[in-house]
Amino acid sequence: MTQNIYDDPDFFHGYSQMNRSIGGLDAAPEWPALKALLPSIHDLHVVDLGCGYGWFSRWASEHGAAHVLGLDVSEKMLERACETTAAANIRYERADLEHLDLPACSFDLAYSSLALHYIKDLPGLFARLYAALKPGSHFVFSIEHPIFMAPRNPGWLVDSDGHKCWPLDSYQMEGERVTHWLADGVIKQHRTIGTLLNSLIAAGFAIRHVNEWGPSDAEVAAQPALAEERERPMMMLVAVQR
Q: What is the pLDDT of residues 68-112, one digit of tens each?
């Protein structure tokens, strides 16, 4: 079973204080780029993998989706999602994405935001998701960038010339990485870019776009703290098609 760190009280409290937890999609700096990868939502059947507070599920409903299924392993996340959702065409269910079980050819769009780096059997998830999507349908997701997931130290180093650097630790050695983010012992699954993309291809998906996201000049001007995201990519945005 996927580690259910979001039901840890300390982790959940810390997560609830983050800008994206308070402001939703518009507070996530990568959202405009991620949104640009989405097809027209009108009349689609959508599954939101790792739906969290339900921000994307509600956005999809508001933009014309026929039905949205939000899945998450965290009871606390689902409780918050249900509290803030009134739309009748959204349904939330507790589910472990390691064991995704959806009807065949039942969805037009799968979406996931910063959840897939927790999944150990990602090839299995991709295969099951491929079966659940209709021919021609889309899968759009964000994931922590493999470079961001393999740091030697928890933060930046400064070289002899005074330049910041992000030292890597055993980038080619895939598998479990334990971090201390919001709570101790958060388990993530590190894999290379090649493994990630080839797993999608092996499942049958056609890769349409890959974005190693970084902020624009305007975004850095509006939020100077984003400047460090230009030094190394924190996340990847990927769009594929069945």
A: 999 999 999 999 999 999 999 999 999 999 999 999 999 999 999
Element (H, E) at 48: strand 45-49
pLDDT 10s digits, 152-171: 655 666 665 666 666 677 88
d(CA 238, CA 242): 13
The Cα–Cα gap between 182 and 10 comes to 7
Q: Please, what are the domains in the chain? A: 5-236 (3.40.50.150)
**Distance between CA atoms of residues 196 and 143, nearest Å:** 10
> pLDDT tens digits for 91-100?
999 999 999 9
**Dihedrals phi, psi of 220, to nearest 5 degrees:** -70, -40
| Residue 132 DSSP one-character state | H
Q: Round to the nearest angstrom and report the end-to-end CA distance of the chain.
A: 27
- Which pLDDT value is given to residue 12? 74
Rounded CA-CA distance 75/52 in Å is 10
Quickly count helices (H) and strands (E) in the chain. 8, 11
Within 10 angstroms of residue 197's Cβ, the number of other Cβ atoms is: 17
Rounded CA separation 201/205 (Å):
5
186 bridge partner residues? 179
**How far is 105 from 134, CA to CA, in rounded Å?**
4
